Prior knowledge:
Elements lengths: L2 H25 L6 E5 L3 H28 L30 H28 L1 E6 L5 E7 L5 E7 L3 E3 L9 E6 L6 E4 L3 E2 L2 H6 L8
Antiparallel strand pairs: 1-2, 1-8, 2-3, 3-4, 5-6, 6-7
Helix pairs in contact: 2-3
Amino acid sequence: MGLAGLLRAAAAGRGARGRGLARAALDTQVPRDVVLFRHDRARFFRFVALLCVGQGLFWAWLARLAYVGVRPRRAAPEPEPEVAPEPAPAPARDQPFTSNLWRYGFCGSCLAVGFVVVGGGLLFSRRSVRQVVLHRGGQAVTLRTHSPFGLRDSLTVPLRDVSCRVHRSQVPAALPVKVRGVTFYFLLDRAGQFLNPQLFDLTVGAYRKL
């Protein structure tokens, strides 16, 4: 094969790759809404919500018990002197675990632990994705998440505001997805179904600098 033949083969290869990229770009402009991912765990998140409520009530009760039940001890009054008065003894110090400092500290710690447990459980529910929908035209995507007690919530954003830091095959448990302007990552459980893996990789699963 001469030099002209090699040039024609190279040009044909570049043209084929260009047509392949163009087809991949056109494939993202879907003619109707497409479900890319699905993983419904409503029963599990109802249990998480009940656990959060139970933990919140327990730590609130423990904080109230510490506030009401633990009081600082007061020194007993000295008896009346019968002879000449003597110097008054120094006031007795509070015993351990009965001072106001320990009382308020333990009460605040209980409330803080309860807040962290309840807030963490609710945040985990709100960031666990149950369904990803690519809308018609491929320019917008909806992330449908779980909410407390099995309720549903959704967020629709432009596709350009969604970024996936790693490929879905590189994570063992959950795939983190970042949305511009939203605190914390959304989590896609690997146990869920990727109904259209190639389209997912080209749209929601692609990395974008946000």
